[in-house]
Task: inverse folding
């Protein structure tokens, strides 16, 4: 029963169980065989299955690929013809094969419905193995050779290729420079670069207000204050109130008369 809150449309389909008692085989074949079978036309013989059984012994199952599929013009290596199938009885599993058929034309006067059928229960699993003859060894050698080939190759260019020429100035850089000119100030620079600009400024003057530091570094005020708190002290008392100076550990002034230490009093707020 479908839920009334479900948004996906749901339609009940009957399951055809007329073949539920039929036993089927599940066969695993090498990739080169499945590729051949998929490319083969639907009206030709693709192989012969032989089952031979002696009294008191297990059945021997073999597969012979049709001669028409062994070689084609596009093939470089001939695939093996004879194969042995290892049989394993399915005992503790319940496996089935289902088929789902969709009508090709749903606009017919009497539209056909989709059919879901149980084609049978898997009773035996078989694994197809080729005989280790000269042809099979050549096939494996060719597969190893193809797998060892690199997917990318290094090529030496003997002429200028336009696609490999570096761009002298990227579009992003051009737009960034134009934006700087339009705004009149830079966007955020790297923190180390801003600190270097601050150190260079404080080599000339001991005290700065925030307006002068913004003009010198061309950084946003909020971002600049975050950096100043790491390397500078903010004076809240006279005579240098509301001005910034380097922390003692960053001061490296040359020995000179105290009167020569420039006090930028004309830069006060």
Result:
């Amino acid at each position: 029963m479908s839920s009334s809150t479900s948004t996906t449309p749901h339609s009940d389909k009957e399951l055809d169980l007329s073949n539920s008692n039929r036993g089927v085989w599940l066969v695993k074949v090498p990739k080169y065989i499945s590729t051949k079978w998929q490319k083969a036309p639907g009206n030709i013989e693709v192989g012969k299955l032989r089952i031979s059984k002696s009294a008191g012994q297990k059945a021997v199952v073999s597969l012979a690929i049709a001669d028409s599929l062994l070689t084609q013009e596009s093939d470089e290596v001939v695939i093996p013809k004879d194969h042995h199938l290892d049989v394993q009885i399915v005992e503790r599993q319940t496996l089935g094969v289902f088929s789902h058929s969709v009508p090709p034309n749903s606009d017919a006067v009497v539209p056909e419905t989709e059919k879901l059928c149980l084609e049978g229960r898997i009773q035996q699993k078989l694994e197809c193995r080729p005989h280790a003859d000269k042809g099979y060894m050549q096939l494996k050698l060719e597969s190893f050779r193809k797998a060892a080939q690199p997917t990318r190759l290094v090529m030496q260019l003997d002429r200028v290729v336009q696609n490999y020429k570096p761009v002298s100035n990227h579009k992003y850089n051009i737009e960034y420079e134009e934006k700087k000119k339009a705004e009149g100030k830079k966007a955020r620079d790297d923190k180390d670069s801003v600190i270097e600009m601050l150190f260079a400024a404080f080599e000339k003057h001991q005290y700065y207000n925030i307006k002068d530091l913004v003009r010198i570094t061309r950084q946003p005020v909020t971002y600049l204050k975050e950096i100043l708190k790491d390397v500078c002290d903010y004076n809240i008392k006279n005579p240098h109130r509301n001005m910034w100076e380097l922390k003692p550990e960053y001061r490296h002034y040359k020995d000179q008369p105290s009167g020569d230490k420039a006090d930028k009093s004309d830069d006060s707020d």
In short: Residues 256 and 262 are 11 Å apart (CA to CA). The two ends are 79 Å apart (CA to CA). Confidence is low (pLDDT under 50) at residues 255-269.
